[in-house]
Amino acid sequence: MKHPPTPRRKTGRPLSFDRDAALEKAMLAFWEHGYETTSISDLTAAMGVTAPSIYTAFGDKKRLFLEAMRRYAGDPADLAAAFASASSARQAVAGMLENAARLYTGDATPRGCLLASATATGSKNAADVRDAVAQERRAIRAIIVRRIERDVAAGRLPPETAPPVLADLALAVTQGMSVLARDGADREALLAVARASMTAWPE
Amino acid sequence: MKHPPTPRRKTGRPLSFDRDAALEKAMLAFWEHGYETTSISDLTAAMGVTAPSIYTAFGDKKRLFLEAMRRYAGDPADLAAAFASASSARQAVAGMLENAARLYTGDATPRGCLLASATATGSKNAADVRDAVAQERRAIRAIIVRRIERDVAAGRLPPETAPPVLADLALAVTQGMSVLARDGADREALLAVARASMTAWPE
DNA sequence: CCTGTTTCATATCGAACGCTATGAAACAGC
DNA sequence: GCTGTTTCATAGCGTTCGATATGAAACAGG
Question: Domain HTH tetR-type: where (chains A, B) (predicted)?
Fold first, then answer.
């Protein structure tokens, strides 16, 4: 995972807060309350940083959110690597669903999924942010589709398998689990849903 | 479906707009842009009604949304009736998923699901509205669970069937399809996901 | 030390937010 | 036609929004 180059500091007064820690706090705030419905005032409280410092360190609210998302929502390259090294597409997707079930019900983070809920809807001003999040989801979908196609080509899955359908099913279950988690479903319920959805796979 | 009694008019200047039509326009605006991220200004434009008229006719933004949701998102009693008259739990859920797939990709309404996306996240000020929408989802879940339990009791489904798991799977797929639809998935893709998820059912 | 650079805390900015006060206009009943 | 009631359009209420101007404070280099 490659981070963008730390803004080159020439000289001057040193930063009085931990930039990475503040970014993580911002991410958690966006995760819990959504992009547009988290105000700058909410962010200053969560990050422990005043508004002008946020703007000099991260640009504006939009760039702060995008940086937080790209930093903590998981690099698609990491997912691609995990999928590539998995023993099968089935195992890879089952693992992804199980990880999601655990993540969405963990105590260290808000319930549900940042990518599924933070920009589920929004005003026209935030259309570009929604598009960026949707792009992230599409990247994940493409990775799943390719991994399934690989197993079909290798004869590990029946030739009549439709990779996009299985991928969309996995995505739908993932994002649906996010809503269930927000409604209070516990970890076992989500894990059961994840396992049940895998029985829809061939063989 | 029983509507709340129309506010009794004694006398006075008649309403200059169609209250039901305005309510539907408001619902569509909330559906597309979400509850908190649809402003009163957006609503006056969509409904063709000035702000004071909205407030005298519907109370405030919160009550306008709740009335729109309860009026158009489907009365749980209607769903319960459809489920009761269905030939089987499986058929009832398959029908629900197919209806959702068609609804989320229809041209007459925004993409996705009002109940899944309008209050996916939000500020603390709107916590009560989110709870009301979550309550609606829980009511739907209870109906599905009960219908599956009925089939298990009647021996139409294997005794080891876990009704809550199948119900949660159906809910997750439904709400996941909402995200897929918003990301641009077409009707056939959603119908395929709905059908694929049904192969997870026993027998 | 002094200069240059960057961040700091304070105090806002204009715009948009949800909402409402006000008085004229449009009806029903008498 | 007058009275009572309700809705109308206009204008603006106080608050919060995202974002900044300002000048003092904290460093590195010379």
Answer: 16-76
**Residuewise pLDDT in 10s, chain A (203 residues):** 445 555 556 688 999 999 999 999 999 999 999 999 999 999 999 999 999 999 999 999 999 999 999 999 888 999 999 999 999 999 999 999 999 999 999 999 999 999 999 999 999 999 999 999 999 999 999 999 999 999 999 999 999 999 999 999 999 999 999 999 999 999 999 999 999 999 999 97
ipTM greater than 0.85? yes
How many of the other CB atoms lie within 10 Å of CB of B102? 13
Domain A19-71: CATH class, spelled out: mainly alpha
Q: Which nucleotide is nearest to B53 (CA to C1')?
A: D7
Inter-chain residue contact A171 with B165, CB threshold 8 Å = no
| Residue ranges of chain B that CATH labels 1.10.357.10 | 74-198
- CB-strand contact A172/D, under 7 Å: no
DSSP assignment string, A20-64: HHHHHHHHHHHHHH-STTS-HHHHHHHHT--HHHHHHHH-SHHHH
* CB proximity A72–strand C (7 Å threshold): no
Q: Is the CB of A5 under 7 A from strand D?
A: no
CB < 7 A to strand D: residues 120-139, chain B = 123
Mark the nucleotides of strand D covered by protein, meaning any atom under 7 Å from a CB.
4-12, 16-22, 25-29
Contacts 24+ apart (CB under 8 A), A154-159: A156/A88, A156/A89, A157/A89, A157/A90, A157/A202, A157/A203, A158/A202, A158/A203
Interface touch A166/B196, C-beta < 8 Å: yes
- Residue A88, C-beta contacts closer than 8 angstroms, at least 6 positions apart: A151, A156
Residue of B nearest to A124 (CA): B33
